[in-house]
Amino acid sequence: MNLPVIPAGRAPSPGPSLNSGGGENYRSLSLPVPSCTLRVYPSIHQVPAAEWDSLLGADDLQATHRFIRTCQEAQVEDARYRHLMVYQDGALAGVASLCMMRVKLDLLSTGGVRWAIRRVRGWRAGFLEVPVVFCGLPVSFGQSCLRIHPEANTAAVLEVVRGAAESCAVEVGAGVVCFKEFTPAESTVLQPLTGRGYLRLASLPSCRMVLPWPSFEAYLASMRAGYRRQVTATLRARERLGIAFRKVEDFGAEVPRIFPLYEQVMAHAEFQLERLNLQFFARLNENLPRESSAILVEREGELLAAAILLRSPGAVTFLLAGLDYGRHRELQSYPQLVTEVVAEAIRSGAGALEMGQTSYALKQRLGAQPSARHLFFRHRQPVMHRLFHMAGGALFPELALPARQVFRATDAASASVPSAAPGAG
Fold first, then answer.
1. Which of 1, 190, 288, 318 would you call most buried, defined as having the most Cβ atoms within 10 angstroms of its Cβ?
2. Which CATH superfamily is domain 23-205+372-395 in?
3. ∠366-270-367 over CA atoms, to 5°?
């Protein structure tokens, strides 16, 4: 079985020999897996971009060389990287990015568990804060960063990546290895990790909305009356309050205005793996100029809220939000922003809108459906691993979200969420 995000039917691209030129850019590891070789690159700039991207589908922007380069150039959380290219019989069979950073392992905990851990930190700083090697990027957009060719030996590639991640953990002194943000279908592919001692744990669900409507008006017409009234109330409020919307394709000049609003969102965020920096926004605009854009919510020239979007042939991704918390309740800035993101995605002709891992109630009322995400977690110290095995449900609780029937029965089937690659935002 192969990871579903890779387009089937594409022949593996031939990988250059390990003895070819440019050996100073990577190192090879001896592998216990027959027929496999591995190249390990510390910098994405050393990785051949076209070859890396050859395993990706058209909508797989967040695994592209350019997106990974954005994260590494921006030095998000000062993470250290290892980029892996796995070859089977000389053909590229899989790619993955590893990153190393310090993480509070209670970041997904809630309620009394979080309160108790914070009390402990009052007298023991750094409690449950450890260096972690992630198979994934140092950003929380609900998407994995492991891709395997459909004709490759999936189990062999996964074993190579696992071995490389654990070798990196030894190298940098990290106690934890974590494969993060996998959909249920992808998690089935990664199930062999549990045989290697990994715990399969819940991450935050990600929201997705299928967009079968030709227009925003058709979308509204398909909603059940109670949900439609909420959206139309938001639309009437924007007229009454004098709120204007502006889409900016090249948003580099707006980054100094957008970034402080993003920081306000992070200051209020319940769950937080990382804090992006201003350089990430600037690099995203520079490295993905055709795919990235911003939606600005303004009133009399004042920026109230902003959304950063990614556009691929089949989907729009609501990647990031910024919000002026001093005005958002009075002006309903966030509902206005998310409603406009839905409208923009429909106008673009995209087949789906990926809405990310926050604000579930609002996004579900607009028609998004949550999809589970999973982590595969292993502590290298057996005693600590047993403790996490016992406490995993408390530290990584499965979030229960109510089901909502937003659309009329005749429209619900076309707006249901099929098995899909994860998004973020």
1. 318
2. Gcn5-related N-acetyltransferase (GNAT) (3.40.630.30)
3. 10
